[in-house]
Amino acid sequence: MGSVERTLKMTLATIVAILIAYQLHLDYAMSAGIIALLSVLDTRKSSLVIARNRLLSFFLAFGIAMMCFSLFGFTTVGFMCYLLIIIPLLYHFQIEAGLVPITVLVTHLIAKKSIALPILSNEFMLFFVGTSVALLFNAYMGPQDQQIRYYHQKVESDLKGILYRFESFLLEGKGQNEGLLIKNLDKILDEALKLVYRERHNQLFQQTNYQVHYFEMRRQQNRLLGQMAINVNTLMRQSKESILLSHLFHETACQLSEQNPALTLIDDIEQLLETFRHGDLPQTREEFERRAVLFQLLQDLERFILLKVEFYQDYQND
């Protein structure tokens, strides 16, 4: 939920709840607005959970309040008795979200100095109006499909850019990569994951983990690229093997897309691994170290592609 949408929903829900409470001639009508304000949350699911927890805390709190006020009167001692009992109970049952708004309603009993049924009914109606209005406003959540699609395109574009950059480094034999693209992509992936997790919690009946798993897969790939960047930085000379590997990075970038299963790339990697294994032995320490780095890059690239293959196999029928 964007800041503008949140502001509008919270403001309108508060005003509507107050107006309804006034129309019902409820005392302390403003309290219905406060409850609505506190109940407008970022997702439908969280709103329903909070509403349920506050309903439970309402009955528990008012039961304890009636007992304490009956014993100690509508005094500070009676209110202290209520707090000493209700606070640990709500936290014990993990419904503490209702503590503040319900306690505000309980103070109305002190102001009225009564626990008569009409007073209790008034407080319940304030709670009911505020919570119901908030749930109605939370029923609308702006669609995020366009934003999610943007993140898909942005992430794939940036991944391709990083892979092409690695190709260039390997061809030139100059690995001078500061990893800025990888760090920026990591931030974008964090934003995307926050969005899809929130969107998932807005789907009450038809939930799917596809988007969450997709961006998690891309984040794992990006972390692998971060490891590769460290190795690429050590390659300061072109070689036959680095040229072959650069072509594979190029091909990976060309085939990188949400729908591509990437199975052919695995075959290409296996062929290149065989080439590495059966090639001439390195003659110098420097050549040995360079060959070891290239071999590690190839293995990391294989893991990079396997992440996509496994994801595609899990969701190819979705």
From TrEMBL:
It is found in: Cell membrane. It is a multi-pass membrane protein. One of its GO terms (cellular component) is plasma membrane. Keywords: Cell membrane, Membrane, Transmembrane, Transmembrane helix. The keyword Disulfide bond does not apply. Residues 145-308 form the Putative aromatic acid exporter C-terminal domain. The chain crosses the membrane at residues 12-38, 58-85, 91-111, 123-141. This is Integral membrane protein. It comes from Streptococcus pyogenes.
